[in-house]
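Below sits my pick:
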Amino acid sequence: MSYGLLKGKRGIIFGALDENSIAWKTAQRVHEEGGSFVLTNAPIAMRMGTINQLAEATGSKIIPADATSLEDLEKLVNEAVEVLGGKIDFVLHSIGMSVNVRKGRSYTDQKYDWTAKGWDVSAGSFHKVMQVLYKQDAMSEWGSIVALSYMAAQRVFPDYNDMADNKAFLESIARSFGYFFGRDKKVRVNTISQSPTPTTAGKGVKGFDGFISYAEKMSPLGNASALDCANYTVSLFSDLTRKVTLQNLFHDGGFSNMGVSDAVMQAFEDQ
């Protein structure tokens, strides 16, 4: 069902890779709600995914950009404003990567040049995106910027590895830059702490299948899907949430406030 929440609004969506990704689902929902946008991802990621299909279905232009490169981001923002015909109303940062996770290095045995690369892609890029938008005065008043996070930023999930640190840094950047964006430009900045979701990136974490089953049993409403997250993101892009900023918003079926559930206890008692 469409409500026309984003009619006439313009944006940039980072990170759509394939139909399993939250950014992909968000792009579809934004399109259904009347918004227009450009899609962007790193050139190497675009070769791995099927983003052209999404662009065709939503009538969107693809502008490749390395989100860790200020030069690429400056070109992206300039071209997006030109293509869309005005300032940007919404941005989704759906980017995350850990070389240590990919290469099977444990948290206690990190290769630090890999750690630095993961930080730059997963968190530093968010600061760079906002700095470019801020300096170019490219955001409309009451615009909305959202990045995707995970509860490992606050609690220990051993196999999430250095991505937990990356997400903690991401959330801090959202608060710190969000202050200046709100004060100077009337722009909102928030992060969404999403349920474990079977995206391409999520499934790369060791023990992911077991944990997603555990989270489903722990959460009173069950895990939030990628489509659920897309709907929530649309609400944050809309004018209905104009005074929501500097927040890390848990979107996890209640998992973040649970200690234990009957279903989890029963699983142990049945052993």
Remarks:
- The beta strands are 10-14, 36-40, 61-62, 88-93, 139-149, 188-194, 248-251.
- The chain has a mean pLDDT of 94.
